[in-house]
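User: Could you check the structure of this?
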Amino acid sequence: MTLFHALIRTHHITSRKKVAHLRKAAGKFDCYALLRSGGCPGIMYCKGGEESVKEWVGAVQRLRYKDFQLVSKPAPIESKVVEPEERIGLFEVESVKEFAAAMENRGLSEWWKRGMEFA
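Assistant: Sure, the predicted structure tokens are below.
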């Protein structure tokens, strides 16, 4: 199965109610999601099957986050690193530095930097 992923940037992610909704959506759509929550900027990464990723991104859009930007639309993963099997569900980090490290561990550092306009 080809894995897809997407990257979303928002102004911030602070609402625990919205995070709970996204956690439920990650389980429902059988995908892995990583959030940088607690402040500005809000960053979300999702990985799974094509339809799973598209459905999860739709769930995020329906929550109407301030300054929602789908910086990398759902697309096949083109990583040079063989990724370990991810657990299904939503996981959170508190800093951009932690999020960057997670992307680096997946071999997605350059992709992530381009999406965030750091490169």
